[in-house]
Amino acid sequence: MSEAALHADPAEDLPGPECTLCPRLAAFRTAQRGAHPDWFNAPVPSFGPDSAELLIVGLAPGLRGANRTGRPFTGDYAGDLLYRSLLKFGFAAGDYGADPRDGLELRRARITNAVRCVPPQNKPEPAEIAACGRFLGGELRRLPRLKAILALGAIAHNAVLATKGLKRARYPFGHGAVHELPDGIVLADSYHCSRLNTNTGKLTTEMFEAVIARLADRLDAESP
Fold this sequence. Notes:
Elements: H1 3-6, H2 23-35, E1 54-58, H3 66-69, H4 77-88, E2 92-93, E3 105-106, E4 109-113, H5 126-131, H6 133-142, E5 148-152, H7 154-163, E6 178-180, E7 186-190, H8 195-199, H9 205-222
Parallel strand pairs: 1-4, 1-5, 5-7
Antiparallel strand pairs: 2-3, 6-7
């Protein structure tokens, strides 16, 4: 982890509901509040226990998904595939009802995003990803039992490396890749489980489940 991340002010670990670090995102968030006052429309907090051994890092909240519901990957297609897979391999319990009140619980896993606020057209800018890095650093500090990180997409992968002060060239993104990082944490990669990727065949259910299964097997093998 970079020196800046290691010594960051604990008060910066979580963005406040009126975070203005990224003016474009703050303005978009304000516009969505006007259009949909019953939606969450704020930086989306992480989901899962602090005892997690696996941290899943996505890109950003979806407009009608997490930005609406207030829980990562909840209410859009990407969440259907993600939570179904986590349930199948023991990282979650209960039923996923695409609603934060569905009672679903994560086990051994926690989910966050590289960017906490919904971006226009689901495309955060580089400066916004960098600004939100302090919160990703806070996630890593918060998880004392963390053993593995799953990056959903290249942006999430690169955000993790930046937070840890590591060079991209040494750890290239690739679906199914597993990188052993200097601090002992494993960084695994998957294409993002978005509707675009699954509809085009870039990512199949079998491909995604294979990544989750491999992580489950690894964590099980390392458990005392």
